[in-house]
Amino acid sequence: MAWNEPGGKNNDPWKNRGGRDQGPPDLDDVFKNLFGKFGKMGGGKGGSGKSVGKFGILLVIGLLVVIWIISGFYTIREAERGVVLRFGEYYQQVEPGLRWKPTFIDSVIPVDVQSIRDQASSGSMLTEDENVVRVQMEMQYRVVDPYRWTYAVADPQTSLSQALDSAIRYVVGHSTMDNVLTDGREATRQRVWEELQAILEPYDLGVSIIDMNFRDARPPEEVKDAFDDAIAAQEDEQRFIREAEAYAREIEPRARGQANRMNEEAQAYKEQIILEAQGEVARFEELLPQYNKAPQVTRDRIYLETMESIFSRTSKILVDTKNGNNMMYLPLDKMMDKQNSTAPVRSRSTLEGLQNPIEIESPNSTTNSPGLRNDSFRDGRR
């Protein structure tokens, strides 16, 4: 039966030994018994027992030395740098990897130098135009000097928080409410960044500011609705301006293209008219000598060519008047429609070198005019 089971009180190893109760053995007695056993291992008393006792002490010291050496190994992760202190004073900085330090002499503080840390600050602040706004900003930074980060100030996190809060309040205090809430937010963020760097520079905390985020800026709740309307109106204004600019960018190239096309068409028409006029002048210059040599023949030929050109583009109706005065129906409406759909042909010819316009008449005309007139041709008179 076990001594701690019911009814096993008499089996307690610490009681009823030698007729009296006793507690747990004393540690001094345990060590004395242990060293006594080491002494007996020599087989006798005297010098041999003392040598065996010294061997046991050396063995214990050797174990302690091994434990001390093993306890000195440590590892610095890839994203960290180690700050080594020797008797509490800065000694050196170690790189990542497996390292060893003398325990109780050196101590190592690992510092993360790759992770990006956040530090936020918020509060109600008074602007330059004496309005109250609530601003929330967040700073992102990274440690670049582990020693300065650890020992430049007593509490680097608190120092960063206070510096950020001071920079925000300074910039907001020198800005108007509209700039902080609307279109001046980016400028405010940049100014806070610059002011924070100026504040941290004398402390040399060993940090690098990566970014500054303007998380929120809003007016007091009592006037929030009015400011929301004002912001919406400004956003609408910017949207209309962008739409107008986009429309202008779309219309302007099209208008420029049309203007260029019209200029090119006008230039082409100008060249066409000039070439046609030059051709007419050249033709009449060739015609003038022939007219001077044979006026009647030339007049008849021009008359026939002109009539041929006119009748080739008009409708013709042949009426037989020799077989009686029969009434016949002429489709005047269709003839007029066809005439209206056909562009009128107008031939205007002049002869350079002639002082009077040429009048083209019938070969049997008795007019002895030195020139030719196109009006007679155009009316079809003989």
Automatic annotation (TrEMBL):
Q: What is the recorded name of this protein?
A: Protein HflK
Hydrolase keyword on record: yes
Spell out the Gene3D superfamilies in the cross-references: Band 7 domain (3.30.479.30)
> Per its database record, what is this protein's job?
HflC and HflK could encode or regulate a protease.
Instruction: Identify the residues that the record assigns to the Band domain, covering every copy.
Output: 71-231
- Organism encoding this protein: Alteromonas pelagimontana
Task: Name the domain of life this protein comes from.
Answer: Bacteria
Region described as Disordered: 1-23, 339-382
Q: Which SUPFAM superfamilies match?
A: Band 7/SPFH domain
Q: How does it sit in the membrane?
A: Single-pass membrane protein
NCBIfam families, per the entry: hflK
Primary location group: membrane
The membrane spanning regions, by residue number, are 55-76
What are the record keywords, sorted?
A: Hydrolase, Membrane, Protease, Transmembrane, Transmembrane helix
* Cellular component, GO annotation: membrane
Q: How does it assemble?
A: HflC and HflK may interact to form a multimeric complex.
Which regions are flagged for Polar residues bias?
A: 339-353, 362-371
Tell me the GO BP annotations in alphabetical order: proteolysis
Q: State the similarity comment.
A: Belongs to the band 7/mec-2 family. HflK subfamily.
Q: Which gene encodes it?
A: hflK
Q: Where in the cell is it found?
A: Membrane
